[in-house]
Amino acid sequence: MRTWLKFGHPPSYWISGFFFPHGFMTGTLQTYARKHMIEINILEFSFKVLKITDSNEITKAPDVINKS
Q1: Residues 6+ positions from 58 with CB-CB distance below 8 Å
Q2: Which of the 8 DSSP states describes residue 46?
Q3: Each residue's pLDDT tens digit in the chain (68 positions)?
Q4: How far is CA 62 from CA 2, 34, 68, in A?
């Protein structure tokens, strides 16, 4: 997490590695809502199952889709 503070968020996360994944997911919604000044109630996650990829091959975060 120290690396995140110094260099920003990584392009992907190992969600199972978190002690409380639900809290992490809620935090990401809050961060997005604050950044874009929209209500958190209208946000939702959408998941797409992808092939297994080595984390070093992921160079950027996925594109964000705003449905509002």
Answers
A1: 11, 12
A2: -
A3: 788 788 887 777 777 667 777 888 888 899 999 999 999 999 988 877 777 778 788 787 777 666 55
A4: 22, 19, 18
pTM of the model: 0.52
State the CB neighbour count (10 A cutoff) for residue 22. 8
- Helices of type H across 1-68: 2-7, 21-36
Q: Tokens 């992921």 belong to which residue? A: 58
Query: What residue segments make up the domains of the chain, in order of their start?
Result: 2-57
Tokens 């449905």 label which residue?
Answer: 67
Residues 6+ away with beta carbon under 8 Å from 51: none
Q: Do residues 68 and 22 make contact, with C-beta atoms less than 8 angstroms apart? A: no
